[in-house]
Design brief:
single chain; mainly alpha; Helix Hairpins; 2 helices; about 70% helix
Length: about 120
């Protein structure tokens, strides 16, 4: 997969030229989607693993500490999965928008060229 976004050192005027490759951006969205699927698989494994009986943790409040950690960890796994899903969707949408805008821009230039040619 190519670099979805890159800058060229100079655009002829001394400024940086920013370019986006919608196909590469779409590929990145697919990879983020795969990461989301992988995260959900990990969450399912984590949830199915269960924990030991509270007595296995011994005294000194370890069972309560583990329970608090386990709850917080489960919550953060879910937050991470949701973030991956949202990021995947937004990167995919950006790819579509870049493609659409590029097509509209090309069409506009063709229309202007046709008008200038008709003079």
């Amino acid at each position: 997969m190519g670099d979805p976004m890159r800058t060229n050192p100079v655009d002829g005027s001394g400024g940086l030229l920013f370019q986006v490759d919608p196909a590469s951006l779409s590929g990145a969205a697919g990879q983020l989607g795969q990461a989301y699927d992988d995260m959900n698989t990990a969450i399912a494994y984590y949830a199915s693993a269960g924990t030991s009986a509270p007595a296995a943790f011994g005294d000194f409040g370890m069972a309560d500490a583990w329970s608090s950690f386990d709850s917080a960890w489960s919550d953060e796994l879910s937050v991470t999965a949701a973030a991956l899903q949202e990021l995947s969707q937004k990167v995919a949408a950006s790819s579509v928008v870049y493609t659409h805008n590029e097509s509209r821009t090309v069409s506009s230039f063709h229309a202007v060229g046709a008008k200038l040619g008709a003079r």
